[in-house]
Amino acid sequence: MAAAASELLTGWCLFGLALLAILIFCWVYVRKYQSRRESEVISTITAIFALAVALISSALLPVDIFLVSYMKNQNGTFKDWADANVSRQIEDTVLYGYYTLYSIILFCVFLWIPFVYFYYEEKEEDDGNTCSQVKTALKYTLGFITICAVLLLIGAFVPLNIPNKKNSTEWEKVKLLFEEFGSSHGLTALSFSISSLTVIGMLAAITYTAYGMSALPLNLIKGTTSAAYERLENTEDIEEVEQHLLRIKSKCRDGRPLSSRDRRTVQQLEERLRTLRRRERHLESIEKSWWTKFCEAIRPLKVVWGVFFIIVALLFTVSLFLSNLDKALHSAGFDSGFIILGTNLTNPLNMLLPVLQTVFPLDYILITTIVMYFIFTSMAGIRNMGIWFFWIRLYKIRRGKTRPQALLFLCMILLLIVLHTSYMIYSLAPQYVMYGSQKYLVQSNKTTDGQPKNVTFVSKECDADAPEDQCIVTRTYLFLHKFWFFSAAYYFGNWAFIAVFLIGLIVSCCKGKKSVIEGEVDEDDSDMSDDELSVYYR
Fold this sequence. Notes:
The protein is 70% helix and 5% strand. By secondary structure, it is mainly alpha-helical.
C-alpha cells in the first residue's frame, strides 16, 4: 500500500513539473512571436491558455495507454491492487479527463477565442466605449455558440442505432431519443461535437502538419544563407536602385515634369529602397548578434536533428500508408468506417513498438515523441505558411511581429489539430493504441498419445480476440469509433495527408536555403517595426 502511495505521489509530482514546463513553453512561444506594439493582456492570456490546453490534451493518449498497461504484469495477470473496481475507476478517470479537456476545447473554440478575436477587431476600428465593443463581440460570437448548440443537439438526439419498429408511434420514437440522451448523460452529444471539430482538425493537419513534416527537417539540414553574403548582395541592390532613381530624376533637371509612368516607377523604386535599407539594418544586427554566433556553433547539431526528424517523418508516412492499405484491403468498407480489428499488414511502427515494450519505458517515450513531433511540425507548418482562408492569406506568423488575431488563429488551429492527433496515432499502431503492452493468459493443453497430460497457461499479447475481462481497451479507442461516418472521413483524410506530405517534400527539396531574415522584412512593414526585432539580435 505504501509503495502504491509513493508511486502515486511521484506521478503527481511529475505531472506538476510537466504542467509547469508546458506553461513556461507556451509563455515563451507566445511572447516570442507576438507584436510588441499591438500586444494586449487579454489576447496574450488567451493564446497562452489555449496553447497549453492543446499541449496537455496531446499528452492524454500516452497517459491512457500507460494506465491500461500498468494495471497488468508482464506475465498477463492483473496486479494485486488492480481489481475490477479499481480498473473501472481508472477507466472512468481517464474518460472524464478526456471529456473535461475536450469541453474546455469546445469552450475555447466556440466562445472564448472568437469573443477575444472580435473584441480586439472592434477595438482596432473604434477605441471608444468598451461596453459597445463587448456587445459587438458578443453579437458575432453568438454565431459560433449557435453552431456549437446545433452540433450538441445533433449528437444528443440522433442515436446511432434506432430499433426499427413499424408499430412504434412518433411519441415512442421521441421518447427513445430522450431515453438515450439521459442514459449517456449528454456525453454522446459532446463526442459528436468533438468529432465534428476533429474533421476540421484533419483538414488543418493535411494543410499545415503534412507540409511542416517535410519543411522543418529539410530547413534544419539545409540551414540559412550567410548574413554577410546576404548583406553584400543587399548593398549591391541598394546601389542599383539608387542609380536607377538618379537616371529617372535626371530627366527633369531642365524643369520638365516627369511623365506619369516615370512617377509610378520612382514611387515603386523608393518603396523598394526603403525595404532594402530595412533589410540592411536587420542583416547588420543579425551579423553582430551573439545568437547568430551560437546558431553557427550548433550547426552540426541542427543537421543531426534534421536527419532524425526526416527519419521520423518517413517512418510516420510509411506506417500510415501500410495501415490505410490494410483498411482498404481487409475492412468491411465505407459503411463500417473502414474499421478493422487488429492488423493484417504490419508496418514499421507496429513492428518497433513490441520490441521497445520489453524495455520500460521506451515504447512510451516513442509514442510521446511522435505525438510531440506531430504538434511541433504543425507549429512549423503554420509558421512557414501563415494563416490562409482558401486562396486568401489572412495573417503571417513572424517573430516579434505577429498580430494578436493571428496568434489566436494559430492557437485555434492547434487545438483542432490536437483533436485529430489521436486518430493519426491509432492509424499508425491500432493494436498498441487499443491495448498498450497488455498481455492475457491462454490455456495450453499438452497431450501425450492423445491424452491430456497437464494444463498450463501462456501469456499472449492482447488483441481483438482476447476476452473482455482480460484486456482493457483504452478510452481513446472507444472515443474514436463512436461514429462510423467520421472514421470513414478520417480514412480518406489519411490518403490526402500522405499526398500533401510527398508534394511538400518535393517542394522543400527543390527550394534553396532560406534567408536568414526570412519573412521578417516586408514591403508593407513600417520603419517602427524594426524596433520590435532589435531585442532579438543584441
